[in-house]
Task: structure prediction
Amino acid sequence: MKITIADLKRGEKAKIKDITSDVIPLKLLEMGCLPGNEVQIVQTAPFQCPMYLNINGSHLAIRKETAAQIEVQILHP
Amino acid sequence: MSKQIKVSLIGNPNTGKTSVFNLLTGLNQQVGNYPGITVEKKEGICKLSRGVKAHILDLPGTYSLNASSLDENVVIELLLNKNDKDFPDVAVVVSDVENLKRNLLLFTQIKDLHIPTILVINMADRMERKGISIDVEALEKLLHTKIVLVSARKNQGIPELKELISSYASLSKTPCVDALTFAPDYFESLQKAFPNHSLYKLWLVITQDVNFRKFDKRGIEETPDFKLKSESQLKRMQQQETIKRYKFINETLTKTVTVDQRAATGMRERLDRILTHRFWGYFIFFTILLLIFQAIYDWSSYPMDMIDEAFVWISESLKGILPAGPFMDLITEGIIPGLGGIVIFIPQIAFLFLFISILEESGYMSRVVFLMDRVMRRFGLSGKSVVPLVSGTACAIPAVMATRNIENWKERLITILVVPFTTCSARLPVYLIIISLIIPDKKVGWILSYQSIALMILYFIGFGAAVATAWLLNKSLKIKSKTYFVIEMPGYKVPMFKNVAINVIEKTKAFIFGAGKIILAISIILWVLASFGPNDKFDNAEELVKAEYPNLSEQELDRKITSTKLEYSFIGYAGKAIEPVVAPLGYDWKIGIGIISSFAAREVFVGTLATIYSVGNDDEETIKNRMAAELNPVTGGRLFNLATGVSLLLFYAFAMQCMSTIAIVKRETNGWKWPLIQLSFMTAIAYLAALLAYQLLQ
Result:
């Protein structure tokens, strides 16, 4: 099963896998959401949406449905 | 006039670009619009060291040259059009030292357009605290540019920046990265087809949906040996381009920038833990809102009383100076009370703009967007609708414009349609005067007064109407649009005094002069209409009254004559004509006139009543006292009693009553359809609510 950012819990870290889907908005890439980058969940609003992320020092918030498009590999501390 | 160097300030949002602009230009700046669109155009003049001047254009903040909004289109349209009168001699790219990586993406794109470019690394004062050190010389070499470390907060680096701007001719025009290498065949054939244009420019023309005059997409589509790719293919290529650029940026920064992780203080994390907390986050947000409304109501009451009295004094002293006659009447009974009705609200409007700009400058507004997104989506809105809804408490016009960064068209349209329900500052004059007439001036406990609670309820009613209407629109509108939502969460900053002050002054000025013009014109027209009548009943008012009521005292007689005159004036006849429509709401014909004249702008209502009630009334009184003294011609009781008051408050809470908002909605939605729908449902709701309130409370 694919693991995406939407599956992560608060404080968890993961590494972004290849970005292949053209569903992912270009703006997200431009703000630093790139393959190979480390992503950490800073905070989630009630019902896990939106999600506040720290991607290699870039802080941004996205909705869960977008987060579910970004495949990651969980990093264990 | 000597030649000016044309400078464009470009940068990501939240990099302090506007602070740099303010430091370069001081108060020597003006805000206008780009021709034909409502994007705010900020420009100013800056004196450089050797007597040379620079014309500085503060372009809208953008994350890249791949435009996704009207504001961002402005940036590429300018940078791709060498014939534009504002085309820069030099581009100054402003970046934030803590977000250098992301900020450099835009920088590499601008370099690809062969424009001389200076890189400003702003907030340099934070470097030490954050453990960041930069090898500026090496970075300059890799990026083919000149770099200035600037601290807008500490006013450092500005002379160096000015120096670089004046020697712009020696700056390199060479791009720093070759990003278009992932599809060699495609790009080679493209360049061959159009050898006179730079490859990146061609690529932007293909991928962007903007108007480049003369040189647009069709020019490329019509070329036979060159085929356009599908949208999805283009998007994949843009992704590859972005990845390529970031690869270059990462390599460059690894060589030149070191960050000592131990120095990180974690202030941001600690604040975020509380401010975006599932419970405390909301609690703090609502507490802040409550404090703002209390402050607007309480703190500004002192300067407001002073202004009110000052206008009475001016009017009275002019009566002593000017020769008696129609001219003096026009000034003391028409213009001055009309203007007084708007000047009095400067303190409140300034406070409101002050709080909103502090919330935005500090970075807190993004946290509110984060907190509210889920809730707002239930009603068909976006978390980003919170910013328009909050700034709508100042004015619906900038609020409608602030909807531009909502990516989803349906969410954006709904936000535009419901924003005018929020209690804008133009409603305050109406609310405040009516609240002070119908709600007792007493305190509950220590701080809150009944009057400020009443005001807060009105704010909630406005917000509630916005949200409820949004819910209905969301259910009934059948619009499909791609949805996504990305928002940057900037670091927290202490707001800079200069930025906040300039913002408050500019916005308040625009409000006062914009409203002032309409009010001045309307109060003159009203005065004329109230001072003359169509037949001799107006001129013979005195005899008519004396004949009908021979036994009245002098004072009562005077009052009767005044009101009879008004009744037979032009305005009296007009008011009588609409009385049947407004009577079920508990209004007399004078209030009816107020409502009609305030269709242009709500705040005109108070000015209108002030003008109408002061015509022929020589008593030294404030607007409020005059209104309190009005009697209901039918019941004989006070005209502004609870029922009429509440009915008026609700009418103004829901009715559109603002021509400028209609105009801006027309522009932002590209047609008359939506503003007209909006106008009809708002007026209908307003009338029904006022009717119900009056009939129930009467």
